[in-house]
Backbone:
């Protein structure tokens, strides 16, 4: 075995390499996103994921080996969720005054997300377990997988649908809101959080801090409301 | 910075314990967020002259994490690449459902928000008078 291949065998199995690769892929993706003037189509999550997926495929690395290193980044999702309390606290006066639109938009958005997703897939003839996996797709992965399990869906499929929804929402929110002529960053951020959870929230923080704050509120509230309404609504399909 | 990390991890830990102990349908970190928010509101009420969050280590740590929130979804996102077959296995229906539903949810949420905000935005002042 040559020295380089021996070095590779060592690196490929080490958490350090895949942790560095994750941060490097994201740094490259974020640089591209900045170079494109934060054009929503140049989504940093999507680009970093494609880069890493290509690297894993080329090096025949199993996802489990990759995750040994990437888990340190993944773990920070918990503290980052807690950290949402800080902008919420700093903008509390603005948020408190917007409570009526917040709750109206939350109710309308949560119900639209479930009915439209399940309705379209049902019209295309998707079986019940796929509909059940799809119903909670707009909420954060941990809550969505729990709901999916409870109502007879497939949690692994739900995780895929949740992340796809997040990336789609992050890409679509800016052009859609511009097309509608909506300039209220509270409304734009809140919509991003309701429709596409944390990845939509990440996009909102990239655009405007107030939009990010409202997206964070939407992410938390929609997780709660969806967990309550999906088990009831899916019962109508049985 | 050490205290900021301890505060964030501590809130998450207590959140996880409450979520499991009381079998709540909400993940631990979301409860941790509620706890930290309550603590920050309480602190502002007790110490009206308290320095602004932005200058404190906790404010800096939160700003750093949230500015790089996209990075934190990359490991989970890479995991779903293995699952793309299930998206296409169900034909175009599932993809159309995702795109259509996400667009519709964004539009309905934002329009309802703006419509209600138009009626209520100036209300708090009149409510205080009455």
Residues:
């Amino acid at each position: 075995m040559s020295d380089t291949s021996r070095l590779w065998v060592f690196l490929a199995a080490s958490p350090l390499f895949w942790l560095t690769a994750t941060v490097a892929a994201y740094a490259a993706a974020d640089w591209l996103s900045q170079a494109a003037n934060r054009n929503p189509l140049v989504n940093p999550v999507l680009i970093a994921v494609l880069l890493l997926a290509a690297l894993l495929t080329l090096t025949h690395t199993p996802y489990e080996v990759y995750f040994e290193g990437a888990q340190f980044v993944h773990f920070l999702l918990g503290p980052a969720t807690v950290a949402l309390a800080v902008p919420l606290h700093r903008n509390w006066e603005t948020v408190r005054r917007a409570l009526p639109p917040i709750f109206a938009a939350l109710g309308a958005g949560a119900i639209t997300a479930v009915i439209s997703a399940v309705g379209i897939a049902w019209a295309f003839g998707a079986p019940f377990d796929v509909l059940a996996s799809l119903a909670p797709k707009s909420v954060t992965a941990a809550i969505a997988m729990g709901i999916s399990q409870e109502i007879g869906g497939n949690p692994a499929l739900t995780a895929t649908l949740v992340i796809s929804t997040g990336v789609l929402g992050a890409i679509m929110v800016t052009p859609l809101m511009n097309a509608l002529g909506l300039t209220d960053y509270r409304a734009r951020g809140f919509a991003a959080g309701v429709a596409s959870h944390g990845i939509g929230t990440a996009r909102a923080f990239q655009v405007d801090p107030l939009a990010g704050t409202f997206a964070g509120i939407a992410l938390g509230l929609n997780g709660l409301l969806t967990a309550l309404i999906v088990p009831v609504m899916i019962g109508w399909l049985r | 910075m050490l205290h900021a990390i301890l505060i964030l991890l501590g809130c998450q830990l207590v959140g996880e314990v409450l979520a499991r102990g009381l079998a709540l349908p909400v993940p631990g970190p979301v409860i941790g967020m509620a706890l930290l928010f309550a603590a920050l509101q309480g602190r502002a009420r007790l110490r009206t002259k308290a320095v602004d969050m932005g200058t404190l280590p906790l404010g800096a740590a939160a700003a750093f994490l949230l500015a790089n929130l996209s990075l934190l979804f990359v490991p989970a996102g890479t995991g779903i690449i293995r699952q793309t077959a299930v998206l296409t296995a169900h034909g175009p229906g599932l993809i159309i459902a995702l795109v259509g539903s996400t667009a519709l949810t964004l539009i309905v949420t934002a329009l309802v928000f703006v419509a209600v905000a138009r009626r209520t935005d100036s209300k708090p002042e009149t409510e205080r008078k009455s």
